[in-house]
Amino acid sequence: STLTTSDRQIFHDHQGFPCKHLVITSRSDKTRYCYIVYSKIDGYRSSYCHIHYVSDLEVFASFSSPIRLELWKREGSAFIIIDSRLTKNVSIPFCFTLPLESTRLYKPSGEIKPQDIDNLYSELLILNLRILPPKNEFLSHILRKFLRKKEN
Fold first, then answer.
1. Contact, 81 vs 50, CB < 8 A?
2. What is the per-residue DSSP string for 53-96?
3. Is pTM beyond 0.70 here?
C-alpha cells in the first residue's frame, strides 16, 4: 500500500535520524496499513524498541504479535516501549504500563492538548535517548504488577 501524504512527510522528515520504519498491511483489507516509526535503544544488558509513531492504532493492536516478531527479527529486541498517549486506552495483548517519570513540557497553542503531543519530533527520537526508569525501579515495578495479577 502507499503511505498517505502525512505519513510520507513523516518518513521524509526522519531520514538521517537514528530511527527506523516499518509498514504492516492488513491481509483482509489491503487499503489499511500501520506505519511505525521506532528506534532501537541499547541498554540494561539488552535492547528494546521505542515506538514513536503509529499511524493506525487499530491495525497495530490487531497485529501486535507479528509486529513484535518482526522487530525481534530485525533488531534482536526482547521488548517494545510505547508511550501510553499513543495507545489511547486501546487494549494491546501482552502489554503492561510502566510509570515514566520524565517531565514533558509544551507551550499551549490554540487547540493543542497534552494528549495531542507525541515524541515524533522530540529530542527522544533525534538524540536516541532512553526513557526507562533505573533498572531496579523497572524490575521492582514489573514484579509488583505480576504479583498483583497473581493475587487476583
1. yes
2. EES-HHHHHHTHHHHHHHHHHHH--SEEEE-HHHHTT---TT--
3. yes
